[in-house]
């Protein structure tokens, strides 16, 4: 193996984490992955090994447990952490905010304390385009104003601030705050993908369940946004491209000083209607949908200026909308017994 570095991946059994662990293993890194299975299934671990053709260390544990975090650094020679673990449902975060702050903020504090204790100061953090709130202009640059409109978004903003304060307080911290836009799709093998519990909140998983005949129709939230066709526009990004963005960030960390935000998006926005059309093209037949009211809290337009990711990380998204739809479809068709909502 060409690169012997050991990477701790928290939330390594989740949607983005599992894809990233596969790419890390294939690139030769040693991986220690942690997950409490709050939003993932144990079967993901063997699937990762199958895809990578290699084994890795998996620890079932919780970032909220300081003892568990300290033990990870005591037991393994961890050089860098990729921190995915956390809760991510915006609506749920408004109902149980303390649970979100505990998992996301306290969990990250525990992780940072354990890293400090072990002298590990290299971190790649899963932030989100949600930290831009309702952006004043698109494409969104990293120096755009930050705001949050719900506890989930506020937890990401708080963690970013904590990382900035920490990096200012002592030299040596190298932190990439990766602000993801809208990750979609699945591993082309059909072995890894997103497995939302209950009714999906997000467009792509819902669209896939309609496309595969598991739900009768899609409701398009709003038709009067100030966008070309009146529906919301987002920057959808293939999860494999996103995983590769983490590898690019790992390689760039030695050149990063302090805590630097970096957008991970394609730079291209698609409307809800364009997403339906793309899925219909892949399917070869129409998909039932109807207009409904706007979803409270939704914004009209959100897409990235991805220039910093290119200049600092040498990374660009390469997979197109057709790949996002067809890989998502392969995943849902081959896993209808695994998927929580369909089981
Ligand atoms: P996910 O829910 O699939 O993965 C998160 C993983 O963390 C899950 O496997 C879950 O079981 C685990 N986890 C949760 N709380 C934990 C805890 N206390 N201790 C240990 N493990 C815990 O979500 P994802 O889509 O892979 O997102 C990964 C990260 O990226 C999250 O931090 C999320 O907020 C962020 N993010 C996701 C999106 C998106 O649209 N998917 C967009 C922007 C940012
Ligand atoms: N939409 C529908 N019908 C649906 C679901 C969504 O029309 O059934 C529309 C939404 O109104 C929006 C677009 O599809 O215009 C995308 O919605 P998603 O819920 O898929 O994505 P969001 O951009 O609203 O939110 C996502 C994550 C947030 C994260 C944000 C920015 O869910 O956690 O991206 O990264 F903060």
What would you say this structure looks like, in words?
The chain is an alpha/beta fold. It has a domain at 6-183 and 237-265: NAD(P)-binding Rossmann-like Domain (Rossmann fold, 3-Layer(aba) Sandwich), CATH 3.40.50.720. The protein is built from eleven helices and 14 strands. It has helices at residues 15-26, 43-52, 66-75, 90-95, 97-118, 151-169, 203-211, 239-252, 272-283, 307-313, 321-334; strands spanning 6-10, 30-35, 57-60, 78-83, 122-128, 174-180, 182-184, 218-221, 233-234, 236-238, 258-264, 270-271, 289-292, 301-302. Strands 3-2-1-4-5-6-11 form a seven-stranded parallel sheet, with helices on both faces. α6 (151-169) links the parallel β5 and β6 (174-180). α1 (15-26) packs parallel to α2 (43-52) and α1 packs across α8 (239-252). The longest helix has 22 residues, at 97-118. The chain is globular. The model has no long low-confidence stretch (mean pLDDT 96). Nicotinamide-adenine-dinucleotide binds next to α1, β2, α5 and β5.
